[in-house]
Amino acid sequence: MTSLHLLLSFICSLCLGTAAMSAFTRFPSIDDGLTSEQRREINARALEITASLTLEEKIRQLDMYAGDSVLLNGELTEEMLESSLGALNVGSIHDFYPMTAAMTNTIQRWARDRTRNKVPVLFIEECLHGLNGAGHTIFPQAIANAATFDEQYVHEVGRAIGRETRAYGVHMCLAPVLDIARDPRWGRVEETYGEDTWLASRLAVAMVTGLQKRSLSGNESVIAEPKHFTAHGIPEGGRNAAPSHCGVRELHEVYLPVFQAAIQEAGARAVMSAYSEVDGVPCSGNPWLLSDVLRSQWGFEGFVLSDLGAISMLHTTHKVAETKAKAMQLFLEAGGNMQFYDFAHDQWNHELLKSVRSGDMSEDIIDARVLDLIRVKIMLGLFDDPFTDLDLVSKNVNSKENREVALRGARESICLLKNDKHELPLDLTQVRQIGVIGPSADVPRFGDYTDKEGIQSEIVTVLEGIKDLVQNSDHPGIPVAHAAGVGIRSNQESAVIRPSYFFTDRSLTVKGIRGSYYSNTEFRGEPMFSRTDLQLNFNWYKYGPRTDLVNQFSVRWVGILQASLPAQEVLGWFEAELDRSEEHT
Fold first, then answer.
1. C-alpha–C-alpha distance, residues 106 and 115, integer Å
2. Percent of the chain scored above 90 by pLDDT?
3. Residue 491 confidence (pLDDT) above 60
4. Residue 555: its H or E element
């Protein structure tokens, strides 16, 4: 792939205009592939399986475990599986990001052979614009996909993400984000399809049907989970999870139709309930929203996953539940199905057992919520064959076909806002100097839910791409100047050292800086591994530099920093980097 292609692959553009699409494409959904008889068979089987579970087992099905709860230094061990899944099993596992399908197969084998109920585990991961994790295709961010106004392209992105995700034995994507973004202060606008209800609805259908395809049981299909239900994109003051204020008519005309299209037309089998409250009622404890609208009016046949911590917020933030137990009960009775790291697993199990056995909550509520989840697992084909073909990763992940889809979207999403004097495309015979200006010129920006680990050698920034194009043109002597200007968030952002300034040694021939990674915070002993890092701007809040090095680690970087800049700016860099290293040790 040429530098130009790589340059275009990582450009995202913002387009929040009113959609001009008057017609739309009809994509087949999983509901189109289900006969009435098949629906009856699935429901009957789900009822039989649910009835066979003990109360403790049913409550565990409504729980989500984090990947690090089943791993020890990045490895699956029998001891960890025994202490986490044990004999009671678990409903789902998230933040696992398996390196191979063999890892998910090992857990499925445990669920089948070492638990009484033998219910397969549902693996859930982030894949808003590509499966999060090293080595997967990174597609343009959602807002860039919206800027293409191309339903067929977005559908192809969904199909590609489904192929890559299911290849690892992962069954569900926490995507798409269907919030209508009408407050530019909100920091998650980039994750959405913009401000227009019609455009967002059409792209929602395209993405959901692409992810789920015509059948969930295929080895290229995953469950789509539209989020955040609902009106989450207009938070007060632009603060994520702050209250949303809108009337009933606006809710029905602007915010609900996108989710309705994803569910009724595209057949989405999961939904994420929002943290926030709408008109004073928290979404994750709202029976009108999660039961009346979602299930009774729209006929939703999937399950509702709370956003991370949204159930506990019913008690701690919204103050509508007196206790944690009451928050759990409110969520489940409203129509929710599964917690997302809200409470410790023992607490979740204990409090729900206590609520049912004391008569505070009917076991019928637990049964109904488990039934929704079991039905989805049946549709995924997990009860028939929970295992994944180990060859799918090499065939389907980061394939040439998927990269071409990403490149196509990057090209189609570019928005040229002004070209009155026809400066573009550049005529190099008439150019004396090229200026590349802005804080994103020499910093790769892929968007939220992107793991840049493992692809650093393939990253070409806008500045590097333009320099390369000039160098390989008939006019290689044209100077290319660069000024970062003011940072997007603050001037502090200029303290991030640009990747083009790092070299491994004084020969200045190899870009990057050598990092030695230690499995302790004191740089003791031999490093666990060493590698060349092309930049020092990592986000290790949750995942760490590798799956086997997540917490309690330290890094020593050694290399050459070459930049013709004022000493004060260089000092600012080092101060910022020292602060960051302290934060992440």
1. 13
2. 70
3. no
4. strand 554-558
- The answer to whether the peptide bond before residue 475 is cis (omega within 30 degrees of 0) is no
Token digits of residue 120? 């397969």
Q: Residue 568 has what pLDDT? A: 52
For the chain, what is the largest distance between any 2 Cα atoms, rounded to a whole number of angstroms? 83
- Strand ranges for 38-166 from DSSP E: 64-66, 71-72, 75-76, 92-94, 122-125
Residue linked to tokens 């009860």: 383
User: Quick one: 43 exposed, middle or buried, by C-beta within 10 A (0-12, 13-18, 19+)?
Assistant: middle
Query: What's the mean pLDDT when you consider all of the chain?
Result: 88
pLDDT of 575 over the 60 cut: no
**Assigned token pair, 291:** 């039961």
Short-list 309, 301, 305, 291, CA closest to 365: 291
Strand order in the sheet with 223-224: 64-66, 92-94, 122-125, 172-173, 223-224
The first and second tokens of residue 250, run together, are 């606006």
- Is a pLDDT exceeding 80 seen at residue 382? yes
Q: Looking at residues 337-346, what average pLDDT do you find?
A: 94
Please check whether residue 510 is in contact with residue 532, taking contact to mean a CB–CB distance below 8 angstroms.
Answer: yes
Which of 39, 575, 28 shows the shortest CA–CA distance to 299? 39
Tokens of 61: 């099905």
